[in-house]
């Protein structure tokens, strides 16, 4: 009852406090500062209140004692309330630890937005061990957690490092549209929508637009959301993902793979050279070691042989693509043959055994998109292969898909025909081959997959701010 009457006033004789963010505190030791944030941890002991304050940039330990811990607000304080703390920053005594190595001795503070107590208290709504469907519903709370926020913070540094590496490699950033009327990776995974009386789609890839930039801007890249209506509930598929794509002119297939490798290695080097990013990687993936160059290159046909040598089989399918089962209902497993798609499970097992990044290259044309350049000659049984590559990473599998593109006009027309594509809406893409064609190639990297590899996350769902997968577009 007494405590209700204590009203805290700021002592006007104290030095004026400096407003700051938690990650900028180090040079302000022994100074009077004020910091706003959210109560991440709260503990009361013998009339003293210990708070860990979180402001997104870091964590700060704060101590409220004497009058500051006796007010009504102090005694009814709740986790996740937003507050402003004012006090003197002190280095923690020898032998004690605190984030940043200091703590705030609070002399004045106020509540900005109190979070509920009781039934509605944060800890009753959410804990990190809740059921996955509850965690998905409460993603807006999950991202307040230490792990989720570290992944997102690392993601931000990753994007900056990628951009810096690409700019250093003389690629220019462009922003292609999300609303499109052409498919890149096949009609089956397009999200269609009504568009002023026409049909439009959400983009699957900005590749075709990047190709049109080459004669205008030179080598280019973009960071754009891509959308895939894939009914895949796997740990590496999202319905919307961040797609980092690059396109380069006057290169060979070998140049393309070397470029992808150097962008990835330069990005990793930049992250490890930055103390905050390096600390995040260490926190999330303590065993991380940067990949060594050059990356292993494995021809598709050799990969098929490798899978068979290692007894890695796949489920047999009938002509319609349905799995064939034995009398007991178990799927029948068969060896891989040239022409087979290497499915996710087999690819993952191979990558995990090899334990290093691998460029798998030279896929059969029949498995790949219409625009891919063909390798000269044919293989066994007249098979045609393409100058295409996937970069596979241990633990995740494919993180990059790239290829050289058909540069010849008539060859492209033949490719549309073979794939049953109506070339009408692709007129602008075809024009690239008509008005000064060039040998060129490019790639797309799935940012969430890359981050899953870098930060050792089990699923890409943990690497997206608000992940979308079949059935989920909330929050
Ligand atoms: O292999 P994909 O489909 O290639 C393309 O879209 C090319 N047009 C890119 C280009 O050459 N410019 O996709 C490229 C990468 C994949 O390697 C994967 O990392 C990621 O995009 N990706 C996905 N990530 C999350 N969820 C999905 N559903 C994804 N589909 C592809």
Automatic annotation (TrEMBL):
It comes from the Eukaryota. It is found in: Cytoplasm. It is an enzyme of class 6 (ligase). GO terms for molecular function: asparagine-tRNA ligase activity; ATP binding; nucleic acid binding. Its main location: cytoplasm. Its EC number is 6.1.1.22. One of its GO terms (biological process) is asparaginyl-tRNA aminoacylation. Keywords: Aminoacyl-tRNA synthetase, ATP-binding, Cytoplasm, Ligase, Nucleotide-binding, Protein biosynthesis. It catalyses: tRNA(Asn) + L-asparagine + ATP = L-asparaginyl-tRNA(Asn) + AMP + diphosphate + H(+). Residues 152-467 form the Aminoacyl-transfer RNA synthetases class-II family profile domain. One of its GO terms (cellular component) is cytoplasm. Belongs to the class-II aminoacyl-tRNA synthetase family. This is asparagine--tRNA ligase. It comes from Sanghuangporus baumii. The lineage of its organism: Eukaryota, Fungi, Dikarya, Basidiomycota, Agaricomycotina. The chain holds residues 95 to 569 of 569 of the full protein.
């Amino acid at each position: 009852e007494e405590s209700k009457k204590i009203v805290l006033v700021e002592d006007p004789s104290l030095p004026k406090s400096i407003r700051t963010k938690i990650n900028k505190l180090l040079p302000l030791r022994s100074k009077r500062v004020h910091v706003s944030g959210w109560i991440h941890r709260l503990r009361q002991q013998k009339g003293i209140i210990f708070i860990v304050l979180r402001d997104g940039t870091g964590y700060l330990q704060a101590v409220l004692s004497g009058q500051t811990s006796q007010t009504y607000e102090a005694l009814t304080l709740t986790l996740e309330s937003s507050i402003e703390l004012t006090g003197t920053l002190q280095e923690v005594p020898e032998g004690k630890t605190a984030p940043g190595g200091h703590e705030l001795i609070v002399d004045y503070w106020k509540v900005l937005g109190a979070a509920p107590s009781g039934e509605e208290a944060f800890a009753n709504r959410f804990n990190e061990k809740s059921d996955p469907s509850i965690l998905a519903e409460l993603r807006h709370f999950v991202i307040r957690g230490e792990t989720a926020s570290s992944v997102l913070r690392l993601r931000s540094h990753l994007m900056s490092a990628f951009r810096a590496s690409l700019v250093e490699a003389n690629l220019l950033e462009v922003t292609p549209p999300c609303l499109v009327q052409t498919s890149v990776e096949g009609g089956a995974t397009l999200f269609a929508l009504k568009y002023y009386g026409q049909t439009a789609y959400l983009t699957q890839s900005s590749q075709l637009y990047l190709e049109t930039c080459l004669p205008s801007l030179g080598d280019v890249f973009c960071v754009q959301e891509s959308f895939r209506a894939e009914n895949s509930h796997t740990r590496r598929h999202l319905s919307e993902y961040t797609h980092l794509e690059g396109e380069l002119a006057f290169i060979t297939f070998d140049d393309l793979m070397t470029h992808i490798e150097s962008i990835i290695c330069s990005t990793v080097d930049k992250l490890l050279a930055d103390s905050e990013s390096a600390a995040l990687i260490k926190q999330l993936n303590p065993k991380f070691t940067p990949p060594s160059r050059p990356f292993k290159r494995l021809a598709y046909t050799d990969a098929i042989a490798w899978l068979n040598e290692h007894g890695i089989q796949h489920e047999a399918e009938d002509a319609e693509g349905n799995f064939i089962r034995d009398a007991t209902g178990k799927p029948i497993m068969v060896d891989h043959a040239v022409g087979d798609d290497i499915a996710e499970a087999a690819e993952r097992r191979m990558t995990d055994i090899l334990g290093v990044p691998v460029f798998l290259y030279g896929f059969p044309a029949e498995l790949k998109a219409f625009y891919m350049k063909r390798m000269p000659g044919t293989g066994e049984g007249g098979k045609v292969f393409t100058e295409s590559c996937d970069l596979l990473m241990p633990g995740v599998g494919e993180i990059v898909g790239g290829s050289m593109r058909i540069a010849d006009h008539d060859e492209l027309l033949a490719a549309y025909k073979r794939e049953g594509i109506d070339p009408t809406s692709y007129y602008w893409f075809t024009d690239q081959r008509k008005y000064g064609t060039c040998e060129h190639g490019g790639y797309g990297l799935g940012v969430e997959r890359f981050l899953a590899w870098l930060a050792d996350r089990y699923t890409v769902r943990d690497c997206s701010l608000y992940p979308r997968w079949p059935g989920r577009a909330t929050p």
